[in-house]
Amino acid sequence: MKKNKATKKQILTPKERLLRVFRKTQTNIAGHGVFIIVLIAGLAIGISLFRSRNYINPTRDEAHYNETTAANNVSTIDKKLVNKLQNALNDVDVTVKPILAPNRTNPFSE
User: What CA–CA distance (Å, rounded) separates 89 from 91?
Assistant: First the structure.
């Protein structure tokens, strides 16, 4: 007499089911490990190239550029202040004490 397939089936605990799934997954990974590594590396390189495309060839949004440049307040140099500082620098008398001996020759002079 033939036994029914349902009667042959074992009742597994959740832990045993998890171990069985883990073992199957482990054998699949071991069998196709090189392919999986190449696939992951290819995906990583592809994603990085896709994301770096914006940095290599950026697109310029003219409306945004015009809006930003219009909002910038460009300051100018105060000519009166520059003249005042220039006069103050010209009026100062600067004296420098030489540290080197007076009879020393300069090797860099021509």
Answer: 5
Tokens in use for 78?
A: 């105060």
Angle between helices 33-56 and 14-31 (to 10 degrees): 70
Of 8-12, 14-18, 38-42, highest mean pLDDT: 38-42
Tokens of 87: 């006069």
Q: Which residue has the tokens 């090797």?
A: 107
Over the chain, what is the mean pLDDT? 81
How much of the chain exceeds pLDDT 90, in percent? 12
**Contact indicator for 13, 20 with CB cutoff of 8 Å:** no
Secondary structure of 15-74 in the HEC alphabet?
Answer: HHHHHHHHHHHHHHHHHCHHHHHHHHHHHHHHHHHHHHHHHHCCCCCHHHHHHHHHHCCC
Residue 29 and residue 36 in contact, taking contact as beta carbons nearer than 8 Å: yes
- The DSSP symbol for 100 reads S
